[in-house]
Each structure stands twice: as structure tokens, then as C-alpha cells.
């Protein structure tokens, strides 16, 4: 039980840090700073990697949840990757440039 508790606490702490960094990235992007896009890309990459890691941790839990815990973290990771790619869409770069 100690290993499970430590894993859950560590995962929760990492999630809180990623959420805070994501909020910082959103505020930077809202202020039209290029650093916001970079921050959100890093947070997205770490979140996607975390989703893949979580799916490996939950690989044995598929029987208890009809397989949802096996594909849901991978679906989350795929959606995060789509969101990060949207940050680099052609219309975003002109929007980030400050108007004169």
C-alpha cells in the first residue's frame, strides 16, 4: 500500500505542477507572448508522455473497467497532441504578433 500511496501522491503532485504551468502558458498566450506557445508545447509534451505512462501503469486494470482504463489515457494523449499542434497552426503566428 505504501508504494501505491507514493505513486498516487507523486502523480498528483506532477499533475498540479503541469496544471499550474499550463495556466501560466495560457496567460502568456493571452498576452500574445511567444513564450506562451512554447510553455504550452512543453506542458503538452509532458502531459502526453504522462498519459502514455499512465496507460502502462493501468494495463492490468482493463478487466475491472471494461477496458476503459486501457484506451482512455491514450485517447487523452492523442487529444493533447492535437491541441499542441493547433498552437502552431498558420493563423496563430500572425495573431501572436502585436498590433501596431
Task: Walk me through the topology.
Blueprint (H helix, E strand, L loop, with lengths): L1 H29 L3 H24 L10 H20 L4 H5 L4
User: How many individual helices?
Assistant: 4
**C-alpha termini separation:** 59 Å
Strand content: under 5%
Unreliable spans: none
Question: Which overall shape is indicated by the principal axes computed on the Cα atoms?
Answer: elongated
Helix- and strand-based class?
mainly alpha
SS elements, strand count = 0
Radius of gyration: 17 Å
- Topology as H/E string? HHHH
Mean pLDDT: 87
Query: Mind summarizing the main beta sheet?
Result: none
Q: Specify the helix fraction band.
A: over 70%
Quick structural gist:
The chain is mainly alpha-helical.
Keywords:
single chain; 100 residues; mainly alpha
Task: Summarize the structure in words.
78% of the residues lie in helices and 0% in strands. The chain contains 4 helices and no strands. The longest helix has 29 residues, at 2-30. The model has no long low-confidence stretch (mean pLDDT 87).
Amino acid at each position: 500500500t505504501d508504494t501505491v500511496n507514493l505513486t498516487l501522491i507523486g502523480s498528483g503532485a506532477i499533475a498540479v505542477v503541469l496544471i499550474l504551468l499550463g495556466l501560466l502558458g495560457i496567460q502568456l498566450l493571452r498576452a500574445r507572448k511567444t513564450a506562451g506557445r512554447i510553455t504550452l508545447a512543453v506542458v503538452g509534451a509532458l502531459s502526453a508522455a504522462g498519459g502514455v505512462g499512465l496507460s502502462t501503469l493501468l494495463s492490468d486494470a482493463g478487466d475491472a473497467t471494461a477496458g476503459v482504463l486501457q484506451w482512455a489515457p491514450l485517447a487523452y494523449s492523442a487529444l493533447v497532441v492535437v491541441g499542441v499542434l493547433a498552437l502552431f497552426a498558420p493563423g496563430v503566428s500572425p495573431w501572436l504578433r502585436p498590433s501596431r
